[in-house]
Amino acid sequence: MTILLSVLIGLGLFFIIGYSARAGLRVTAPAQYKPTFRDMPLTASFGLTVIVFYIVIAIFAQAIAPFGEGEVMGHQFLPWGSPYYLGTDKLGRDMLTRVIYGARNTVGIAFATTALAFFLGSVLGIWAALGGGWIDQILSRFIDALMAIPELIFSLLLLTIFGTSVLTLILVIACVASTRIYRLARSVAQGIVVTDYIEAARLRGEGNWRLIWREILPNAMAPLVTEFGLRFCFVFLSISALSFLGLGIKPPTADWGSMVRENATLITFGDVTPLLPAGAIALLTVAVNFVVDWLLYRASGLKE
Amino acid sequence: MEKPLLLNIRGLKIEGRSGDTWHTIVKGVDLTLHKGEILGLIGESGAGKSTIGLAAMGFARDGCRISGGTIDFDGIDLRRATETQRRGLRGKRIAYVAQSAAASFNPAHKLIDQYCEGPVIHGVMLREKAETDAVELFHRMRLPNPAMIGFRYPHQVSGGQLQRAMTAMAMACRPDLIIFDEPTTALDVTTQIEVLAAIRDIVSQFGTAAIYITHDLAVVAQMADRIKVLLRGNEVEEADTRSMLAAPRADYTRSLWAVRSFARVKQPPSTGRPIISVRNVTASYGAIDVLKGVSFDIHAGRTVAVVGESGSGKSTTARVITGLLQPKKGEVLFNGKPLPASFKARSRDQLRQCQMIYQTADTALNPKLRLRELIGRPAEMYLGLKGKALESRICDLLALIELEPAKYINRLPSELSGGQKQRIGIARALAAEPQLIICDEVTSALDQIVQEGILKLLDRLQGEFNLAYMFITHDLATVKSIADEVVVMQHGAVVERGSKAELFANPKEEYTKLLLSSVPEMDPDWLNRLLAARSNNDKSGRSTHSSV
Would B3 disulfide with which of A158, A258, B34, B290, CB 3.0-4.6 Å? Predict the structure, then answer.
C-alpha cells in the first residue's frame, strides 16, 4: 500500500514540476520560442521533466548514490530500511545505488545505440532512395540479407566475433537495429525524392550530403521520430537479453535489465524490489513516447 | 412559372479554426436554388465558394463549423437533421463532384466498383442493375468504350475522362442536386470543352439542379442560369447570367470582368544569337518517343510560350533543356555552344544560367526550410555570398518580388498564400542570376487576380534583367498577355510556331485553330455555337469522306 502510494505521489510530483516548468517557460522563454511552449501539452511537459530527471541522475550518479556501484555491503536480500533504503541484491549490493548507476549505464547505452542506429539507418536509407539504381539495389539487398537473420542471434554472433566491450555492444546493436530504420527511411524518402523541390535542388547542383541532410531528412522526420520512440524501448530489451546471455553489460556494472533478472526470485516472496528497475524503464519509455508524440504533432504540421 | 424550391440557405455562417481562435469564413450568405436550375458561384480563392458548396450538403470540413443560419433542402433542415439522416441524403439526393478527379478516386479500385458503391449502399438499385446503369451513363457522358471503361483503374484513364466518370458517378442515384467544385480547372482547354458539354447535357437530361463553383467567368457563363459573386465570405451580387454579363452592378464584379486586361508591350522581332536553341530534339521515355524533332529558339529579353494539351510534350521539352532527360537525337545549344545532355555533366555556371519555376509552388518549395534559406541558397552556392552580403541579397530579392523583407525572411512556405509562394519560386530562380527561366504552368494553380499579379511581376523582371522566358502553359489567355512568340505542340512535335500576333490572327494549322477556338469566351452562347459549328464540320467532313 505504502509503495503504491509513494509511486502515485512520485508521479504526481513529476506532473506538478512539469506543469510549473511549462508555466515558467511560457513567461520567461525568448519571444520566438513562446508559441512552442504555449502549444505544449501537459503530457509532453511531464515527459520532459522525467527525462531531465533521469539525465540529472545519470550525470551525478556518483554524487547521489550512497555507496559504490559494485560494493558488497552486507547480507544478501536485506529488506528495505536504513541505510539500505531499497534493500540489497543477491550479492549484498545496495539496490538504490545500483538503480542510480543503472540510469547512467542503461540509459546512456540505449540512447547512444538508438541515436547511432538512426543516424546510420536514415542516412543510408535516404541515400539509397536518392541514388536509386544499383546503389539502392546493392544496399537494399545487403540489408535484406541481414534482416533474414534473427536479430538476437545475429548480435550474439557479432559480439562473439568482436568481443564484449561496451563500445562493441553499442556498435553491434546499432548496426542490427539500423536495418529496420533503413527500410523505413528508404520508403519514406522514396516519396520525397520525386517531389519538385528535390528536383529543383538537384538541378541547382547540390551534393548528396546536402540533399540528404537539409532537403530530405527534415521532411522525413515525422515517421522517423515515431520510430525512435519505439526503437528506444526495444534497445533496452536487446541489452538485457544480451546481458542475460552473458554478452551484454558485464557485472559488476549495474544494468536495469539484468537487475530484474538477477533478483527475480524475490518476487515469489511478495517483494517488489526487482520490479523497481523495470518500473524505471517503463517510466522512461512512457516519458519518451509522450515527448515523441508531441514532436510528431509538431513535425507533421497537425497543429493547423 | 417559378419552379419549386429545392435548396434554401438563409444567413449561413461558417467558422474556421486557427489555433485556439475561431474566425468567420462565410459571413451570412443567402442562397436559393430551384429544381433543375444551375447556380454559378464565383470568386477568388478564399471567398468561401467550396465551403458554401459543402455546406449545401450539411457538411463542414475538418476545422470548420457551421455556426449560424439555416440550410433547408427540400423541406429537410440539414442543420437539425441527425448525422444518419444527412448520410442518407448524401450521394443519394445530393452529390458532389470534386476538383481533382484523379485525387478523389480511390486508386485501388476499378471505376465500376466505385460507381456501384453509392447506389448499392443507399439501396437504390442492385449491383447488376447499377452496372448496366453505369454503362448507360458512361455512354451519355460520351466516354469512349462505355461498356469496358468501368473495368479500368483510375490511373488507366485520362484526366478528362476521369472527371466525366466522376460526374456519371454523381448521377448514379439520380440526385436532385449536384455540387460541382471546379470540375474543369485542372483540365486543358480542348478537354475542358468535352467535359463542359457532357456535364451540361446530362444535367439538363435529368433535370438535376446544380451548384457550379469556379473562378473562371467564361466557364460559368456557359453553365449557369444564375451567377452569385462572392468575396471573402460575403455575397457581392447575384443576377441571372445574361444580365450579369451584360451589366455587372458591383465594382468588384467589374474588376473580375476586367482582369486579364494586362498585355505585354509588343517587342520588335528578335535578332542575333539566341540564348537557348533547341535543335531537332527527339527524346523518349522507354520505347515511346515523346518528342519528335523539336526545334525552336529563345532570345534574350523575349518570352516564348509553348502551348499544347497535356501529353503534348511541353514539360518534356523543359526536362531536356534542363538536362533531366537526355535526348536520343538532337542537342540544346546555350549561347551557341552545345550543353551536355545530362545536368550532372554540366558545370555549375551552366546550371546557374537556366532556372526553373514550377507549377505548384506547394511542392516546389521545401516545406521545412525558411524563406531565408530557400532564396539564399542559390545565391550562396552560385555567387559565393556569405554573412552580411548574403543577408542583404536575400532582402533585395524579397523586395524585388514585392514582399516585405523584415516580415517574411524567417517564414516557412506554409505561412504564405498561394500567390506569395509562387513569388518565392520566382525569387529563387532570380537568386541564381540566370539568363533563361523556364516557367512550367506557373499560373495555372492560381486564381485570375493573383495570376495577373504574377504575370506583371514576371514582365517587369524581364525588362529589368533582360531575361529570356520559356513559358509552358495550356492557358491561351496567359499566352495572349505575356508571350512574344508562340510554339504550338501536339503529340511531341511542333505543329506551328511564330510571333504571337501572327499566330493568333492567322493560324495556319488545323490544330492551332482548334486550340484557339477552344478558349472559353465570356458569352453565354459561345459553347452552343462552338459545338454546333464543330458538329457541322464533322458532318460535312463525313459526307466528303463517304463521297470518296
Answer: B34
Q: Please tell me whether residues B313 and B382 are part of one structural domain.
A: yes
Q: Of B336, B335, B321, B322, which is closest to residue B281 (Cα–Cα)? A: B321
Residue B547 lies in a domain: no
pLDDT digits (tens, 9 = 90+) for B137-195: 888 777 788 888 888 888 887 777 888 888 888 888 888 888 888 887 777 777 788 78
Amino acid at B444: S
If you compute the radius of gyration of chain B from its CA atoms, what whole number of angstroms results? 25
Residues B48, B144, single domain; the answer is: yes
**pLDDT tens track for A64-90:** 888 877 777 777 777 777 777 777 877
pTM: 0.78
A146: number of Cβ within 10 Å: 15
Q: Are A14 and A53 in contact (CB under 8 A)?
A: yes
Looking up residue B295, the CATH number of its domain turns out to be 3.40.50.300
List the domain range (segments joined by +) for residue A148.
71-277
Chain A closest CA to B299's CA: distance in Å? 22
Looking at the fold, whether B319 and B383 belong to one and the same domain comes out as yes
C-alpha cell at A43: 503530457
Put simply, the answer to whether A203 touches B360 (Cβ < 8 Å) is no
Coil, strand or helix at B277: strand
The CATH number assigned to the domain holding A139 equals: 1.10.3720.10
ipTM of the shown complex: 0.76
Distance from CA of B428 to the nearest CA of A (A): 10
Evaluate whether residue A119 is within a structural domain: yes
Structural domain for B346, as ranges: 284-517
Residues B216, B195: Cα–Cα separation, whole Å: 15
